Amino acid sequence: MVGIGWGLPNRLHHQSLHPDEPIIWVYSQQIEPTRGNFDPGFYNYGTLYLTLLRIASDVAHAYGPDRSVNSWQSTASGHLAGRLISAFAGAATAWIVFSILFGRISLLGAAAGGLAMAMAPGHVMHSRFQTVDVLATMFLVASLLFASRMVQSQNPLKCAIWAGVFAGLSAGTKYTGVLALLVLIPALWLLPRSLQLKTLLSASLACVFVFILTTPGCLLHSSKFLQDVGYEFTHSNEGHGLVFAGTSSGFFYHIGNLFAGMGPLVVVIGFAGLVASLWQRQHWVLGLGLWAFVDYVVIGRAEVKFFRYAIPLIPVLAVGFGWFIGWAHMQENRRWRGLVGLGALGLGLAISQALTFTIWMSGEDPRDAAGRKLIADASPTTEVGLVSDPWFYTPSVFQDAALPRSVPFAIRDQLMRAATQPRVGRYVPPEQERREDWDVRLITEKKPEFVVYSSFEIDDLERLERNHQGGGFEAQIAQVRTFFKALSSSYRLEHVYGFGGPAIHDLMYIRPRLWVWKRIAN
């Protein structure tokens, strides 16, 4: 599958370049299905994806070329197995969107909706990550499918139960999946009163049962479960450090996320299609619209605004897009038919962006390109200076640069200091806990031959300075100013890697920008 091997561990870096993949994979290995142990010791997410990842990675290790569980090749095969789960889920989501539309609008409209889902650039990208989001979305959309069929079905109770089952599977992957039950509410109004309570209870019980089945720790380890769920809730309301400081409200920010992850024209037409279908009294859309509205309010109120939080809205907009294209195509008025061409243009632009992402994910990552060049040109005395602790954004100048921050700094610092040709370092004072990012003493005292930094380290500070919004980070902004004044006087910019990549944080994973400066003065 083209691009699915992006950022996997290799000879240059022994960890994935996606910041969440190593953590998710490590916790998945705590699960032992053959022994009946389904406790990952981690409940920021439900347990279902972690369980599937453990099973898939065990299969990959058993049949892969390297069966050593401690080798980077084995870790890479585990990540790849998890990515294949996401890829399958991403493709299935597009098929489910098509199924929601099929029979309710023309074949052209159903195909347009499925294609809008399949080729949404952000969805294409995240379908190649070993993360929970795409699988949770697939289960969510399956729940929406059955809920939307309740009124037209001869057996609405059966549809409601299946909607509850898939809502439970979605919640067992990522907790917000439980909101899928909201889709049932408008459908219940249209059912005979004698069926309403029975249908609601059946769907709710199915959801709860499946959730407990997939995340048994919610009962067996309730204190840890509540602690981690509470952390997620608190974290979403407190923010994510510099990443979203000084940005607009989530209600506006996620519109930008959707534009980048689906294409502006597709989003606008998709929203117009949802409104138009409701105007045309397409009752099955009521539930989808209610769910999308509530989900948008939930993510809009949060201070953490990753693109991936908006992924579940993409299928609903794809349904709206397909319905509008199919409806416009059936109109006799040629002006309405002209909108089909506008939709085709929107799809074309989205496909073009998806192909660009695919090309980037198929080629050499900027971190590997920068690392390879620095290693090739290094002498035994060459030192590369980092402006912050090494992490996933660091060029691949030593093999463990992308170790997660959960690994104690003393270990990561020891691995960094062990690097040779080039040597790698950052300014660390005698009291390690007092180290600071962008410490000018890296330039004035350590004086490495090269200084490197990434867009993940500088973009947010530059945005705050540009918009004159300190946001409590004034000291860090001032420190960066001092650092760059010293840098520009003693170094020259030698190369920029990854130019033209996405600016949104979790779309930038595949192509960050890296600046390499070379010393010109002693």
Query: Mean pLDDT, rounded to whole units?
Result: 90
The tally of beta strands, per DSSP, is 5
Structural class: mainly alpha
Task: Indicate the overall shape.
Answer: globular
Percent of residues in helices comes to 55-70%
- How many whole angstroms does the radius of gyration measure? 25 Å
Major sheet: size, sense and barrel closure?
A: 5 strands, mixed
Low-confidence regions? none
Task: Give the structure's gist in a few sentences.
Helices cover 58% and strands 5% of the residues.
Q: How would you describe what is shown here?
A:
The protein is mainly α and 522 residues long. It contains 21 helices and five strands. Strands 2-1-3-5-4 form a five-stranded mixed β-sheet. Helix 2 packs across helix 3 and helix 3 packs parallel to helix 6. The longest helix is centred in the N-terminal third of the chain and has 30 residues. It is globular, with a radius of gyration of 25 Å. The model has no long low-confidence stretch (mean pLDDT 90).
Descriptive labels:
mainly alpha, 5 strands, 522 residues
SSE inventory with pairings:
Layout: H1 21-28, H2 48-63, H3 72-101, H4 107-118, H5 121-126, H6 133-148, H7 156-171, H8 184-189, H9 193-214, H10 217-220, H11 222-238, H12 250-262, H13 264-279, H14 284-301, H15 313-330, H16 334-362, H17 366-377, E1 383-386, H18 409-417, E2 423-425, H19 441-446, E3 450-454, H20 455-466, H21 474-490, E4 491-497, E5 514-519
Parallel strand pairs: 1-2, 1-3
Antiparallel strand pairs: 3-5, 4-5
